[in-house]
UniProtKB/TrEMBL annotation:
Active site: 182 (proton acceptor)
Keyword rRNA-binding set for record: no
Protein name: Aminoglycoside phosphotransferase
Keyword Transferase set for record: yes
InterPro entries: AGP_Transferase (IPR051678), Aminoglycoside_PTrfase (IPR002575), Kan/Strep_kinase (IPR024165), Kinase-like_dom_sf (IPR011009)
């Protein structure tokens, strides 16, 4: 598959050799050159995260936490296109990054603490449970949930079963902070001993901090091991961690 850009983006992006990026689970096609990244997503698919939503979040985050700069956005009858600068470095899930699991774990905890410390009152994006549960229900009703991709403990479940369990066990309170929405290891870029930035921020917004903690914890178990996942929670701050909410937000993620 090759990248075909609309005319408006060809005018702002220099001619380059584009390579397809296969890691990550954003649902969009991703291409990169030496200096830029282009994401392409079909219109009319999942309402969970459009590239327009990602563009707006990148613009808001810029200057608050490290993220790519938006270069251009275009929409056609069939697709959305988002062009941005390429952050130097490698994803935290890269084998070279995982040669230093302690460093990855420490930097993850620090990066999320800094993100979650942003002023809530300044964030215009609402991803609290009333919003995300409505989106989850729409996912189930539209048949867009990949039940084969459920975590091991829910293999054999239906999307409707997950939805019923979400309703039954919904937390009574939310500890709302500014969240990334999908802070798995592929979505943080490591450059030497530093976090160069966050990518794939289309689901970012105000939500319970466990919406992030649960997915980072699971990603560390998958990419490194349980010991480093527990270390992450220690470094982030056990006083903020609720085990029941960690389980709840992993359950919620099954529908996205």
């Amino acid at each position: 598959m090759t990248l075909t850009l609309p005319e408006s983006l060809r005018r702002v992006l220099p001619a380059a050799r584009w390579e397809s990026v296969t890691h990550g689970e954003s649902g969009a096609g991703v291409w990169r050159s030496q200096r830029f990244v282009v994401k392409v997503q079909e219109r009319g698919g999942s309402p969970v995260s459009t590239l327009l939503q990602e563009r707006e979040r990148l613009r808001w985050f810029r200057g608050r936490v490290p993220v790519p700069a938006v270069v251009g956005y275009e929409v056609t009858d069939t697709h959305e296109y988002l062009a941005m600068t390429r952050l130097p470095g490698i994803p935290m899930s890269d084998p070279d990054a995982l040669l230093h699991p302690g460093r990855v774990t420490d930097l993850l905890a620090r990066a999320l603490r800094e993100l979650h410390a942003l002023p809530v009152r300044e964030c215009p994006f609402n991803m609290t449970l009333p919003v995300t549960l409505r989106l989850a229900r729409e996912q189930v009703e539209a048949g867009r949930v990949d039940e084969a991709d459920f975590d091991d403990e829910r293999q054999g479940w239906s999307a409707a079963q997950v939805w019923k369990e979400l309703v039954r066990t919904r937390p009574t309170q939310e500890d709302v902070v500014v969240t990334h929405g999908d802070p798995c290891l592929p979505n943080l870029i490591l450059n030497g001993a530093y976090v160069e930035g966050f990518i794939d921020v289309g689901r970012a917004g105000l939500a319970d901090r466990h919406a992030d903690l649960a997915l980072t914890y699971r990603s560390l178990i998958r990419n490194i091991d349980q010991e480093h996942a527990e270390r992450f929670l220690d470094l982030y701050g056990r006083e903020f961690v609720d085990g029941g909410k960690l389980a709840y937000y992993r359950l919620l993620d099954e529908l996205f």
